[in-house]
């Protein structure tokens, strides 16, 4: 499991990894590779040049349309560009918003002094919160052992979380996936902390299709440090009972 999680998330986080070249065209015998195109798009994106980055990302999305995980990360950037461009049209005088503020959840206090403890769950209650609200604590991934008591108390509760899917077993008929707060941060080398990564397991014999957009996952929450070869690989798992597109 450790290697599966590491490989899957690493594939999402490294946006500038080498990729196959685009097919040559009659008008351009030496077209840029997809890696070169993505570097160009990312550079423009990071400078706030969304109108320049958008058509390149759309071209890359078409190239990788048969690879759901790759295409999903690119489509996330497309949505950021479109939101920023639309915001600029409505208020040309305003400063374009930072891309990190468009999709990432509001910062949640996580220190022992400032975090908000979770209330004890009530019988039959469905807990609804963001992934960052659930993992609202600082966690020592190397040593472990510091999950707050109020978080441990949520074990066995029914929970409803919004997030984005990263398949962990296969691109189709997915039985296990990681649920993360935003693909945007994954795309730019900022992997979510272990307390902000939920391992979602479908019931035996059941599977779901890949969804590139934000989803809502409901199921039974398991809070436990899971280790593989001495490494902590997860602390939150959800036994999935429902996967639906998130309301717009």
Rg: 20 Å
CATH architecture classification name of the largest domain: Beta Barrel
Low-confidence stretches: 9-31, 94-106
Approximate helicity band: 25-40%
Report the end-to-end length measured between terminal Cα atoms. 33 Å
Q: What share of the residues does DSSP label as strand, in percent?
A: 15-25%
Mean pLDDT: 78
**How many helix segments?**
8
* Total domain modules: 2
Describe this structure in words.
- The protein has helices at 2-13, 34-46, 50-63, 68-90, 100-103, 131-134, 149-152, 183-187; strands spanning 126-130, 158-167, 176-180, 198-201, 215-228, 231-245.
- By secondary structure, the chain is α/β, with parallel strands linked by helices.
- Strands 2-3-4-6-5 form a five-stranded mixed β-barrel.
- Helix 2 (34-46) packs antiparallel against helix 3 and helix 3 packs antiparallel against helix 4 (68-90).
Task: Describe this protein with a few key phrases.
single chain, 248 residues, alpha/beta, OB fold (Dihydrolipoamide Acetyltransferase, E2P), five-stranded mixed beta barrel, 8 helices, 6 strands
């Amino acid at each position: 499991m450790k290697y599966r999680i590491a490989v899957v998330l690493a594939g999402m986080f490294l946006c500038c990894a080498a990729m196959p070249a685009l097919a040559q065209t009659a008008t351009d015998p030496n077209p840029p590779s997809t890696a070169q195109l993505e570097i160009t798009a990312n550079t423009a994106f990071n400078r706030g040049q969304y109108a320049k980055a958008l058509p390149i990302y759309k071209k890359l999305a078409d190239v990788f349309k048969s690879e759901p995980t790759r295409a999903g990360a690119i489509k996330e950037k497309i949505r950021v560009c479109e939101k920023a461009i639309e915001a600029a049209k409505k208020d040309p005088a305003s400063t374009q918003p930072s891309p990190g503020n468009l999709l990432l959840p509001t910062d949640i206090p996580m220190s022992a002094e400032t975090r908000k403890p979770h209330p004890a769950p009530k019988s039959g209650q469905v807990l609804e919160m963001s992934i960052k609200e659930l993992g609202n604590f600082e966690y020592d991934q190397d040593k472990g052992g510091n999950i707050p008591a109020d978080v441990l108390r949520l074990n066995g509760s029914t929970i409803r979380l919004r997030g984005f899917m990263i398949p962990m077993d296969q691109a189709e008929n997915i039985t296990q996936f990681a649920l993360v707060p935003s693909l945007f941060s994954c795309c730019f080398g900022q992997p979510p902390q272990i307390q902000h990564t939920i391992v979602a397991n479908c019931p035996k014999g059941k599977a779901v299709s890949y969804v590139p957009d934000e989803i809502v996952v409901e199921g039974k929450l398991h809070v436990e440090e899971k280790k593989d070869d001495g490494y902590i690989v997860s602390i939150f798992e959800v036994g999935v009972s429902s996967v639906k597109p998130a309301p717009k």
